[in-house]
Amino acid sequence: MSIQPRTLKGQETQAKLLHTALDCFATEGYKASSMRVIAARAGVSLSHAYYYFSSKEDIIARLLLNLRTEQFERCHAVLDEGNTLESNIRVVFQSGLEVIRPYHEFGPAFLKVLLSQDLMEEELAAIEFSLWEKAVAGARPLPPLGIRRDLPKFLWLLSRQLFSAWAYDQSANQRRSLVLMNNAAPVVAKFAVLCRLPVVRSLFEDILSLMDSGNSIPEQKNTQDPAHRVSKAS
């Protein structure tokens, strides 16, 4: 897992390595871009490169973390109290697509990060989950009380499933998965309203149980402002 540089020089070096790696991936291909090649192009020693990133996969993990942090910052000012649940779901999906679309070729590598059990994946989950908490808490009218606590988790799990579809989507401009995300917002919003009925709420609980195959939400610590915890490589 990459370290969190404490000095400005360290942050600049890490950012330089990240940008150099992305250039290498674009010109040489992901497989052909070794840490040695990345370090040489960045003008740092191999040992220095390994100090900041333990592997190419670690570089991809940092990229994804930076993108999710950027998504959080975009959403934070838009998810105002008073939007409908459908509108808030669209905001989270659309902001995620805006920041991550240029990196579609790394989709499978991103998924490996999400399936890992390291601390960076926990940071990613915390950022993502906090977005869905805000989307639910700010929705008006509020979702039914019976599902309000579990709805952020449901949306988080759903978003990861849709992200998986996007990562492997080979249609032009990932059209299939984009349509899927666009259609998911009104369906979930209508389903949430119907959960006022006990029989539908029971169905919601069953679906959530099926979706949750060992996924866990990390303890929420200062997730309202992850930008303070994540050094963006820009």
Terminal-residue CA separation:
19 Å
Mean pLDDT: 88
Classify the secondary structure makeup into a structural class: mainly alpha
Rg over C-alpha atoms, rounded to the nearest angstrom: 19 Å
Q: What is the strand content?
A: under 5%
Element pattern in H and E: HHHHHHHHHHH
* Helicity range: 55-70%
- What is the 3D form? elongated
Query: What is the count of β-strands?
Result: 0
Unreliable residue runs: 220-224, 227-234
Number of helices: 11
Main sheet record = none
Secondary-structure map:
Layout: H1 8-28, H2 35-42, H3 46-52, H4 56-76, H5 85-100, H6 107-115, H7 119-137, H8 145-148, H9 151-167, H10 175-194, H11 198-211
Account of the 3D structure:
This protein is mainly α and 234 residues long. Helices cover 67% and strands 0% of the residues. The protein has eleven helices and no strands. Helix 7 (119-137) packs across helix 9 (151-167). The radius of gyration is 19 Å and the shape is elongated.
